[in-house]
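FAQ: What does the model actually see?

It sees only this:
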Amino acid sequence: MRFADESGYAGFCMTEHHFQIEGIETTTNPPLWNMHIAANTKNPMVRQVGMALTAHHPMRLAEDLATIDHVPGGRLFCGFGWDNTPRWLNTLAWHLYIITIQSDHRIDRSAGRAALPRF
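And it is asked to produce this:
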């Protein structure tokens, strides 16, 4: 990343993937990696594309991303998505009672949301 920074690259992007048995696209903690990259570079934007919102507690993710953006002086860019790979999303999204579903290209994603308990 230092070479990219010194060479004038505009930014660096990564996606979020977990438990990839294929050995590709594994970024187990993108916000932590983004913080490391931002701390060791001066100019490039640190871009997080494809954060699966359903795999994170929303307040914790908001705090983490705000901190990552603040520390290097506003160099974070984020993109968000709904779901991705069932093998990891079904494990990480249990706290929201969300599971992935096989897509039939409908806009309505309510089939992937179980009935939420009432407290």
